[in-house]
Amino acid sequence: MADGKTHLPVTGLYVVLILSWWPVALAENWPQWRGPAFNGSSPEADLPTTFGPAENLAWRTPLPGPGSATPVVWGDAVFVSAVDTSVSPGKLVGLCLDARTGAVRWRRELGPDRRAQRNTMASPSPATDGQRVVFTYGTGLLVAFDLAGTELWRRELEKEYGHNALMFGYSSTPLLYAGRLCVQAIRNARPERYGGAPGGSAESYLLAIDPATGRDAWKVTRPTDAREESQEAYTTPVPYAVDGRQEVLVLGADCLTGHALADGREVWRWTGYNPRRINHWRVVASPVVASGLAMVSGPKHSRLFAVRPGPVERGGDEAVRWSSDKAVGDASSPLLYRDRLYVLDDDRRTMVCLVPGTGEVKWELKLEGSPVFRASPLGADGRIFCMDEAAEVTVLAAEDTAKVLHRVQLGQGRDCRSSLVAANRRLYARTPTALFCFATPDVSGAAR
């Protein structure tokens, strides 16, 4: 079932665009949670127009148990995290599948699971640079393998830097970018609230690890005056590069901060999304960079802010280019695709399309169905793909007029929180029990 394409060699080479730092060598891979451009989009084409359990299905591979982690893809390898629930307590598992057949190439049991409210510790997604893959878990465990499955290094960050105290369990995915693995822990200052030892280390931090060796490159604390649950964040750091600045953006604990990639120092801070200092405004949706702005979804459907990153006066409204209460999600991160911003109101099942530079609303559409969304949307091949918690996928046209192209149920799903992925002319969908791969017959052979 070879796809006839020449897969990228396993090198660390990146071609860097001056303004966007888009790694072109990854264009047909999906190396980390929000894809090659860190915004949920892919230049992928030739995906199947329609798909389902009996249509354009290349393969379906059972998984050992649940997990909210999104699969990542490099060449003909697919990496996915899960919890093996056949034993008690569950085992955290890292898997490598063959992208052409779905066969399991290797499987590694990495540690015990730990339950949180409505969540497992297999929520952070893996990340790969084509030389190695790093699996991350909510217990603070990080394990790196080469692509053949040989363990290279492991870290247990909770043992080193304290308990990750979050109500729904640690779920942030590291950012693998420009030779650094950036790990954030934006957490509650009282670890005993969520199973940690009283008086233990509780500071929030941003950490950069050398992905080749597993050693710290730098670590900085991230102070906050946020109150109670508002200290917590489930977001993922994103890169920001413009005007010669190379930064990592971190959202949560009542602020958005920019950190120098070279040494982690905080170079600016914006504190505008929780001016009333509400004590339960944890943040889930990660920021997205568009038109030189950071798109920030305030917690609990509050507001969407377009923030101009940079050394402006701390906390000032002058950093906000525009804001909107029309397009506000909570758990789903915004998508940037073909110069349009797509914001999914996950609880109300509403999608809004905006112009990122101005906030102009192009359309708003109520999606049919009733389950909520927790996964973030995917943009690829001229379409927008969304999957709700019950494993129903809705496909929209990526145009300035709202249009539903396809709806399909992938089975009796529940708690489906993994985002859809497009890579190498294939579409991947993960449910708690299986990973689906959809492709047209010329890519996958006869669909089966």
Description:
This protein is mostly beta strands and 448 residues long. The protein has one domain (24-444): YVTN repeat-like/Quinoprotein amine dehydrogenase (Methylamine Dehydrogenase, Chain H), CATH 2.130.10. 2% of the residues lie in helices and 37% in strands. The strands form eight sheets. A four-stranded antiparallel beta sheet has the order 1-32-31-30. Strands 2-3-4-5 form a four-stranded antiparallel beta sheet, with no helix packed on it. Strands 6-7-8-9 form a four-stranded antiparallel beta sheet.
Low-pLDDT parts are 1-27
β-sheet strand percentage:
35-45%
Structural class comes to mainly beta
Strand line-up of the largest beta sheet: 1-32-31-30
Give the overall shape.
globular
Specify the number of helices.
Answer: 2
User: Could you say how many structural domains there are in total?
Assistant: 1
CATH topology: Methylamine Dehydrogenase, Chain H
Whole-number average pLDDT? 90
